[in-house]
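Format notes (please read before filing issues)

Several people have asked whether sequences and structure tokens are stored in separate files. They are not. Every record keeps both together, in the order shown below: the sequence lines, then the token lines. Line labels are part of the format and must not be stripped during preprocessing.
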Amino acid sequence: MNLLELRDAARVELDDLAAGSNATDLLWSDAELDRFINEAVAEAVRRGMNIRDDGVTIAATIGVNQYAFPVDILQLHRIRVHGSPLMALTQRTEEDIEYLRWGIQAGEPRQFTLAGNTLIFDKSPSVATTFDLSVYRLPTVLILDSDVPEVPVQYHEPLLHWVRHRAYAKQDSETNNMDLSDKAARLFERHFGARKTAAAEVVLRNKQPRRTRASFF
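Then the structure lines:
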């Protein structure tokens, strides 16, 4: 289902006005439903519908060993220096940085740590290169009616439980129904599981990535 199909399905389940009716009589605007649908996809991904992306890159700057880490990344799986496909960087803790005086030397980075939203390498690149990341990330926001959620198609319809949960929580005398909102939230959780706490997401984001040993032929 694409965004338009999800929005139309949501209106049917919410018993809102059918397509072609006066838009001013709608209880929920297209913008509201689109926002709820995007929230639903993000919630599904946060709760376990992992999106693996091996195409994330960070352009390295000569002499710089700290880089902004994309905020839409939930977990770092692996990081490599472009051109060295058999070498995986080893993660270090923030305490190691001070002890080892990271950033003083120039050269090809071999180790890194993630401090909040900053990716820190042991060495400052001496040549222009690229860091290739393999990550689990949040979904791309649906904007066009033809956009399709980045979750398996069999889970598209259950996304509507979240839409109903948010729609019935709208503070308006014609839309607010917390009993129906809570029921829809429970149905969504039954399909996708409970939401991780913020603390649990931080632990997952900073989890030690898989290491790859170099092999020679």
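For reference, the curators noted about this record: Confidence is low (pLDDT under 50) at residues 212-217. The beta strands are 52-59, 66-68, 73-81, 90-91, 111-115, 118-121, 130-137.
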